[in-house]
Amino acid sequence: MKIEIADSYNELSLKAKNLVVQEIEKNKRLLLCTATGSSPTGMYQLLCTQFQENPELFEQLRIIKLDEWGGVAMDQPGTCEHYLQQNLLQPLQIPEPRYTGFNSNPENPGLECERIQDKLRTEGPIDLCILGIGLNGHLAFNEPADYLQPFCHVAELSEMTLQHAMASKMNFKPTYGFTLGMADILHSKMILILIAGKQKREIVQKLMSKQVSSSVPASFLWLHPNVYCLIEKDAFDETA
Length: 240
Ligand code: GLP
Hints:
By secondary structure, the protein is α/β, with parallel strands linked by helices. Helix content is about 30%, strand content about 20%. The chain has one domain: 3-Layer(aba) Sandwich (Rossmann fold), CATH 3.40.50.1360. The strands form two sheets. A seven-stranded parallel beta sheet has the order 1-10-9-6-2-3-5, sandwiched between helices. Strands 4-8-7 form a three-stranded antiparallel beta sheet, covered by helices on one side. The longest helix is centred in the N-terminal third of the chain and has 18 residues, at about 10-25. The protein is globular, with a radius of gyration of 17 Å. The two termini are about 20 Å apart. 2-amino-2-deoxy-6-O-phosphono-alpha-D-glucopyranose binds near residues 132 and 141.
């Protein structure tokens, strides 16, 4: 894992944007897997500015949504879909054929997972996977547990996860989550994990202990040969 500390959130976002642009320049048909939440928002904004200057760069880019709240309407503010539509898909003019994402409220959640897994089988593997980390160490909605799941699945969400700002602003609360599984994520050719904010200090410390455990799903990133971990200074306690 290549670890880099950024002085500020702006610096973290800029470094992340530069890396994503560099990868798209190498492969215009890049399959980009996108997390939501506060950590990647600044980077996505910079990508949208880049689009204004150079729209051709994004003409073939493919996007796959990392995870989604389940049992809530797709267009409700707070869903990952709503976030991605506003922050990335519409500004970058990504049309439907170049986008794959869980439906947040399907009739049969199990079948929805199979649909996304099939899509990943034909479109994948993911070239570049953007991740954040949950306060409890989750990756996407792969929650701490006795064992982790390799493929797309319906996830039971922890209390802590349900308190995430995205879920807490919803009128109707999610009852479960959809997520790519650990193998889906770890089969990505490259992974970029963004960690920002003081509240992440404790989990960063656990991640840095290099103890690979299903109680901290993000620790499995230590097993991947091409992970770039960008940490905002505030989230990194040097005295620890
Ligand atoms: C959420 C999302 C994850 C995200 C993580 C961190 O629950 N499901 O995909 O990466 O938690 O979010 P944030 O960046 O807002 O701290």
